[in-house]
Amino acid sequence: MIRPTPRLAKAMFALLPVAVAIAFVPTVWPLWAAALLGLCVLAVADWGMTLPRAQMDVSLKVPKLAYFGDPLQAAVSIPNLPNRTSLELNLELQGAAEAPSVKHQVSGPERVWQIPISAERRGKIDVLGLWLGWTGPLGLVQSIAFESQPQECAVVPNVSAVQRAALRLSTHHTFLTGVKTRRNMGDGSEFESLRSYLPGLDHRMIDWKASAKHRKLLWREHRTERNHRIVLAFDTGRLMSEPLNGMPRLDHAINTGMLLAYLALRTGDQVGLLTFDSEIRTFVPPSAGVKTLPTLMHAAAGTEYTWRESNFTLAISELGRRLTRRSVVVIMTDFVDPISAELMVENLDHLARRHLVIFVSLRDPALTEIVRFEPTSVNDVNRSVVANDLLQDREQVLTTLRRKGIHCIDTAPQDMSIQLLNKYLDIQRRELV
Question: How far is CA 2 from CA 209, 299, 389, in A?
Fold first, then answer.
């Protein structure tokens, strides 16, 4: 397909005064006709000097895997494109992504161009092909063609950011005892051995039966348990698909959950994963070793955004059926008000009777800003009252959960990771599992 360029349109517009002058001075029409004919000849000549599509060697490369939040670029290479060519590139995409139009004037040896792709969320991006627009040396006529090179790119949770954050934390001097697998003698809940009692040791740890058998005081030595089971339960329902700070709540939760999984696996714990909305979508049984992380990442990458209501009764009953020993269950979800959260609270209460439950929700920082903002009109007062009521409703639900023995975290997205890790380390230190 061929179309005129803005340069040709401007040249035609420049001949408009001559065309108007013909109405007053008819003798100038040969001048106008000659100029118009010359312009048409130049356009045809420019099209003739344009490189034919059949002779263009176009190569399109799109990464097979990209981390959500990291830059994603498609590389276009046309090695035989001549200089003084005005080039326009447009990707045809299918999926939650967009790519801007790239325009370039070819003037040097460079024949490779990068097209940034902005992924709006996790999932699969289908690159159907590339639209090309190129001109001749005069820039009067643009040739347009479609290069069909279908490719796929999977946008997965940002494990690179997770690993960088985990490495920073694991190398910090305040975190070494939580990351390195160490046999902390004299503390913890797991029996290690018997030793002779010495003055100053905790007399509550004296094993009286063993002491009577050996006719001397023996002291029970314990070590910190490192094989806890942790299950990350992600709510993928309607509320978690809503954006917060430019990213869906579910993606905030997954990134935080993968960071916790990475650190927990390094400390020797077993980590599993569950996703649910109106039904159970994915379940990965808890297992140990850092090699488990790719399995968890793959399961999290396949998590889709849904607009269904979450069925907490089904999800929690399924967890209770599959977990045969006491575990740490991290529920990442959200709620609106105490009425809609009533069924959720009831089911979490049943789960907390057998397992240690950590409830994680994301608080919208905009609500706090509205409450703190000094009102200047009646509408500002109304907005502040509504925002304050919403915050009070959230606090009411969280207070109810805390009274039932559930550890709650309700914070902004940028603080969620560090608060969840602190809670995990505190649970390990206190041997609450």
Answer: 96, 47, 61
Which 3 state secondary structure label does DSSP give 394? helix
Q: Are residues 71 and 189 in the same domain?
A: no
User: Would you say 157 and 258 are in contact if contact means Cβ atoms under 8 Å apart?
Assistant: yes
Rounded Cα distance, 332 and 43, in Å:
63
- Which CATH number covers residue 335? 3.40.50.410
Kindly write down the DSSP assignment for every residue of 160-171, as one continuous string: HHHHHHHHHHHT
**What string of DSSP letters covers 43-111?**
HHHHHHHSPPGGG---EEE--SEEETTS-EEEEEE-TTPPSSEEEEEEEEEESSEE---EEEEE-SS--
Sign of CA dihedral 419, 420, 423, 429: negative
Give tens-digit pLDDT for 97-106: 888 888 878 7
Q: Give first-to-last CA distance, the chain, whole Å.
A: 69
State whether 189 and 175 are in the same domain.
no
Give the integer Cα–Cα distance in Å for 319 and 294.
22
Please state, in angstroms and rounded to a whole number, the distance separating the CA atoms of residues 136 and 142.
7
pLDDT in tens, 164-195: 665 665 555 444 444 434 444 445 555 667 88
**pTM of the prediction?**
0.66
Q: What is the mean pLDDT of the chain?
A: 83
Q: Which of 12-26, 169-183, 247-261 has the highest mean pLDDT?
A: 247-261
